[in-house]
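ugh finaly. both done.
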Amino acid sequence: MFSWLGRDSSRKKEPEVFASVADGLKKLYRQKMLPLEEFYKFHDFHSPPLDDPDFDAKPMILLIGQYSTGKTTFIRYLLEQDFPGLRIGPEPTTDRFIVVMTGDTEGVVPGNALVVDPKKQFRPLSKFGNAFLNRFQCSQLPNPVLESITIVDTPGILSGEKQRTDRGYNFAEIIEWFAERVDRIILLFDAHKLDISDEFRRVIEGIRGYDDKIRIVLNKADMVDHQQLMRVYGALMWSLGKVLNTPEVSRVYIGSFWANPLHCDSNRKLFELEEQDLFKDIQSLPRNAALRKLNDLIKRARLAKVHAYIVSHLKKEMPSMFGKDSRKKELISKLGEIFGEIQRDQQISPGDFPDITRMQEQLQHQDFTKFNLLKPKLLETIDKMLADDISRLMSMIPHEEETRNETDTGAVKGGAFEGYNESPFGVGKLEGADKGRGEEGWVVGQDRYKYDEIFQSLNPINGKVSGAAAKSELVKSKLPNSILGKVWKLSDVDRDGYLDADEFALAMHLVNLKLEGHELPMELPDHLVPPGKRGFSSL
């Protein structure tokens, strides 16, 4: 009797199936997190509610820097074309927030129209008013780079007397809104202007909670020579250490991101390697977008839980009749003690709590009597989501990455990213182990006379030297045994445990490559195989 009740309840316990990670994040947020946020007025204190476009949007890059540090030029360098609304100059030319994103045709969408578009993730920005919206626009253009990422250009941060100019909107708060939603924050510095103004300091302090997203670019580094660059780099690290206030040293990419000739090309090799590292980081954004959104949702859930404990505690401590105002002031002044009490009682990490000074300022304008008491069921839902649902979404990410790799949609293409590594001017091309590729002669043969003299001094038997004899010469390089072992493996092409004259010359060539600072290849390239052994199979 009533067996159908048991069957129904068991069906409800089955976990919900998600079509994708983004689909799962949307459902979890709407069904489990949003009720908690609304019940405890989370949006009045921290961040507005998330919409579907927040989960569907392409990865975003936010560029921040003082005026004339090359933010707009950096975008043009990546896209390899101008975008609508582009203005470049030594003065503060970019006086607005410009979202550069893909579109079928070139055009500009004004801020007021942009924030009412339900397909875009910028609707919450309407709260900053017309003063901001008149300085906000979207530049759309067809560009292969923008098919994978969206780039946000910001007004140059003011310094000196200009800092006292009222923008008409809260610049630091808008930057913080973007920082919460973007995948990468790039702080640009000019090699000639390392001072951090008061406005820049406030902006950096506002994004301090997003350290994992921050990358730093020392731009226009070709304007100084090698010795000056060392001093500039040291000064930048010293300035950042005081502002970021973290024990870890921030990753700084050094280069000149524009299409003009380098003024001082003594650091060309350094600039190429730094650019390659930065490009790899940017190209990884589409592959890691789902993981980033998942991580941000977890952070938001933890903050929402802590916020619920704080608000419910304040409600519980309020008197029912008289002395509400004085009690409110007392609770705000003792907020640090309340944080400590909640931390001990609920076993919550101190890093999960919001900034106490900012929380105190926001509480001044709130009516504590309208807060709600603790509702354990809402918190249990969040705990269950973090324990079960999030882990299921995590297990889906590798499969989605594999699908993207198969369809070749997991990296940024086009613009400065396209054709760079395929040309002779790519990093490492025709250098090191790649030297000699496409040439008619064997590149090792250029120094063959030196290697043959050493080979003969090792008293070869039947035209070959043993491993012991080769080792006595190779160890003179002072390279680690692990590297020399790799050299031997690459050089013993026929895998007979001996080296003939060609193979020994190849071993010496590889040793010299490593001593010059180049990396050894994982497998021997065809152009390094001795001519007499080409087509030989080592299997």
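ok and the 2nd:
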Amino acid sequence: MNSASLQVESPPRQTGNAWGATPPAPTVCSLTDVMSEELALLLEKEENCKISKKSKNSEKKSPFEENDEVDGDTSNDLLLAQMLQHEFDRAADEQLRLEEEQYNGNSKVSLSFSHYRCVHPAIAGDEDDEDLSDGHSDNEERFVAPTFNRSGVAGRGKSMISKHDAALNAKRNAHRLMEFPCEFESGDSRQLPLPNRVFNVLKVHMMNESKRAQRLHDKQEKATAEQSLDSKTRLLLYKLINADILQNVAGCISTGKEATVFYATGGKSTEVLVPAECVAKVFKTTLNEFKNRDKYIRDDYRFRDRLTHQNPRKVIHLWAEKEMHNLMKMRYFGIPCPDVVLLKKHILVMSFIGTDQRPAPKLKEAALSAEQMQDAYEQVVEIMKKLFRDCQLVHADLSEYNILWHQERAWIIDVSQSVEPVHPLGLEFLLRDCRNVVRFFSKNNVPDVPSAESLFNSLTELNFTGEGRDFLSQLQEYEKSETLMAHAAHNQKEFVFDYFFERSLREREDDDDEEDDEDEEDEDEREEEEGGEECAGDAEEA
């Protein structure tokens, strides 16, 4: 048998699998069919049909939607335009409704904007029905109060009822509770009887909470408690930067109970001379941390007539103005303190005490040797003597925290609470300053530090005896005497005349110097013009 003649038939290849017949392969759609608009509309219509079958309560459709389902053709441009206009009108009416609610507010007399509505007449009736429902469904029970006559009685016989009926009032109060603002979470209380006493307590509580929320909102908007930067303060700083008085405002240098100090760089303004490095002291408008400010102002004759207790911001403006005047007065008598650049409401711009953006350390934090500490004590005592005798001021809060050590000198800061000796508590404030100074330097082992009473007598040139309460009682009797008042008033008049007289002289000298500079500039310009004309003539001759 020839092997070539043998033919072995192979069994047919089975297309199935051991688990059963294979499912038919899905039909493949081309990209053009997928992107077809007709296919998309068909799928959308099928989806809408499924949703409509599942929904139990179908809403009434507009005539535009009905025509769209019947025709199934969106090639009609007029129908598309009407549908778009319909959606636009609904959005405009919704915006008009919000404006109407905002305009009327809680007023008893309301103004209607229905004349300006542009909703289509085909669905106007449906929307009016929805508005009349007032948010209540048919299943909700509504409270209908009976009509009472002048005597406050409704009905006759056994059905007679008074307007003071407990059950009627309880039901009415339960429904009135639902009219409270949304912020008052009362829940659904329509089925809960509410007596008049309980309802009145809830109503008073709701009114108090509303007033408290309004106060908190105003406080957050106007207060400058956290870092002293509220919206108005930021606006003032932006104005100073836009006026080129300040170039920028950097980080916080220090913060205290009354103000916060920020580092700033001076601008290029020609109207105000601003140093390259300066500070912006922002006074806090809240009186929570420093509530006894008024006792430093109410007896100061410079600000007594302008003090008000109603507006805290006005008190802060006086506080900032008081520090500006005290600094200018101290600077006039040569006491080392910051220079005042300008005052803008409750923002005081001053010169910076320090170098290269590093503020000078406080006397409490400065690492001084024994010789430097002795020198610092002598400087502080001399400053207190000059401050009391020449400036006629008492610091009233002098301590190691309000004294800076810079370039081997003691600098005085924070003089907003400083008062004059004629203040009813001026000498008591001075005694307190003496105690703070003596305590600090005695603690740092400075030799030959006298007692606070001895230092007070040396500064004031008075001879009070005793210590503690005896010394304080003598001091208080002297404060009430007329001798101190007359002496301080005389010194104040002399200072005012000398200060403003010398200030006017300096201004006149500055004006004369400016005029001389302008004359010199004009002469230089004339000489340059004449020289230019001569050069032009020589060039023409050549």
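summary for the 2nd one i guess: The chain has a mean pLDDT of 75.
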